[in-house]
Design a protein that fits this description.
The protein has 379 residues and is an alpha+beta fold. It folds into 2 domains: 293 residues, Beta Polymerase, domain 2 (2-Layer Sandwich), CATH 3.30.460.20; 60 residues, Methane Monooxygenase Hydroxylase, Chain G, domain 1 (Up-down Bundle). Helix content is 57%, strand content 13%. It has 11 helices and 10 strands. The strands form 2 sheets. The protein has an 8-stranded mixed beta sheet with strand order 1-5-6-9-10-4-2-3, with helices on both faces. A hairpin with a 2-residue loop joins strand 2 and strand 3. The radius of gyration is 38 Å and the shape is rod-shaped.
Length: 379
């Protein structure tokens, strides 16, 4: 039986989907016989995909590393649990672990794909959880999202990491050293600490995004006459990607906080409730940053429109000045053109005051036009 945050499909459809997932998983392990194998570099072994494998009892790790072929026997013989950590495995690599521990094919398929939403599913006695750790690349203003999948079985924990994330490494280091006094014991300790560290990363990313949003806001309203729209849009897109990693996690954490997940100690509910509260605060901060970026983008576009309007007004004023001076210059040009035609029958050419009369006419017309244009605001 599978319980999920989504509506449960009909038994027939669920069974068909499980068969298809198992078939895809098996099919990815072997190439078609008719297709010749191209020359490739030697594939890495399964040991390369397993970051570590150890036995944990009473919150402490037993010395040494457990080989994969004996991990199943070690899990069945210990009162604690075996933790196998897989790092970016292929479907063929994880298939060996899935066969050894009887992992659900649907969950295995989701663990291999790195584009799942955060979720929590229960397959009989196996709890499957997907977390989305993030980190903020400040100099590029990019939110880098990775994926961590956890299988919590009766006496084992199998984790699958896709992408760059230090969350599982930090959890294992804390358990191995025994320096951290975790309030949750057993397999739930791995899930609790991983979720806690992931949400802590969310809060750090929110603070870094807040600094960039404040920087953009200062630039927009400082009157620096720069177009910030491209930067705002890019950051808004990253905030949207960040929201996709954060918001879906609220429902799984709420189920854990209520102590209603089969296979997870109900005594850990108060601690998951604390993580859930931190997640809700982070989600509220993300929504606030997204709304603020929208408002800042509108303000920036409005300022760009105002600056363009001012430029258009100045260009219009310049065109009027040019037109006014052109009109003033047209008067002497026209008069000089008339008297430059050199016709014989032009009485003013023989009048001794004709030259001075023409100059006075030109000067008078130019002065009148100049005063007229200044009174109308053209000059």
């Amino acid at each position: 039986m599978v319980t999920d945050d989504r509506a449960e499909p009909a038994p027939g459809r669920r069974a068909a989907r499980a068969l298809r997932a198992a078939a895809r998983l098996r099919g990815s392990m072997a190439a078609p016989a008719s297709t010749p194998s191209p020359p490739v570099t030697p594939a890495r072994g399964l040991d390369d995909a397993i970051g570590d494998c150890g036995v944990y009892e009473d919150g402490r790790r037993r010395p040494g590393r457990v080989p994969l072929d004996t991990a199943g026997d070690a899990a069945r013989s210990t009162p604690g649990f075996v933790w196998i950590g897989l790092q970016q495995p292929t479907a063929a690599e994880i298939a060996a672990v899935a066969e050894e521990f009887g992992l659900p094919p649907l969950a295995v398929e989701d663990a291999v794909k790195a584009h799942q939403r955060p979720k929590l599913e229960v397959y009989d006695d196996v709890v499957f959880v997907v977390l989305k750790p993030v980190r903020y690349v400040d100099h590029e203003e990019v939110v880098d999202v990775s994926q961590v999948a956890l299988f919590l079985g009766p006496n084992y924990v199998i984790t699958v990491r896709q992408g760059d994330s230090t969350v599982l490494g930090r959890v294992r280091a804390e358990l191995d050293s025994g320096a951290a006094e975790l309030p949750v014991s057993g397999r739930a300790a791995v899930l609790y600490r991983a979720a806690d560290l992931v949400v802590d990363e969310y809060e750090e990313v929110v603070d870094l995004i807040a600094d960039d949003v404040e920087d953009i806001e200062t630039g927009v309203f400082s009157g620096d006459h720069l177009d910030h729209s491209e930067r705002i849009y890019k950051l808004k897109r990253e905030v949207t990607e960040f929201r996709r990693a954060v918001l879906p996690l609220a429902t799984p954490l709420l189920r854990l906080a209520e102590g209603s997940v089969q296979g997870v100690d109900p005594g850990s509910a108060p601690y998951f409730r604390d993580v859930h509260d931190h997640l809700l605060r982070t989600a509220d901060a993300i929504e606030g940053h997204d709304r603020l970026l929208t408002d800042v983008l509108q303000a920036d576009l409005a300022q760009v429109g105002v600056r363009q309007s001012r430029i258009a007004v100045r260009q219009n004023e310049d065109m009027r000045k040019i037109s006014a001076w052109a009109a003033i210059a047209l008067v002497p040009t026209a008069i000089a053109g008339i008297y430059g035609m050199n016709f014989d029958n032009m009485p003013e050419l023989t009048w001794k005051y004709g030259y001075f009369m023409v100059l006075g006419l030109i000067l008078t017309a130019c002065v009148v036009l100049h005063r007229l244009f200044r009174r109308n605001g053209w000059l």
